[in-house]
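Input.
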Amino acid sequence: MNDEIPKWLIDILEAIRHIDVHLNYQRDFIVYQNSITIQRAIERELEIIGEATSRIPKVESTIAISNGRRIVDLRNRIIHAYDAVDEFVVWSVIVKNLPVLKLEIEALLGSIS
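Output.
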């Protein structure tokens, strides 16, 4: 296995953890919605998650991340269509998808250690 794979998986996990830090470990949409600084910080973490997710299958096609295409698509939207980022979509990803992704990445890291 390529040595970069664990690094990219850790990058994803750290970005998820940083989102929790940006939110002060609370899931409060109003706080998120009312702070452009928090929104931009979280968008940056989602960019990192998307970029790392896009790199993994290019190097190791046997490692699949659930919803990998959707993760990369979100990254592309944040970067290239920054003026069309929907805060409700981002919030939905934070609340519904990131906990699942975190578990999946932890499992992948555990399987390659």
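The mean pLDDT is 95.
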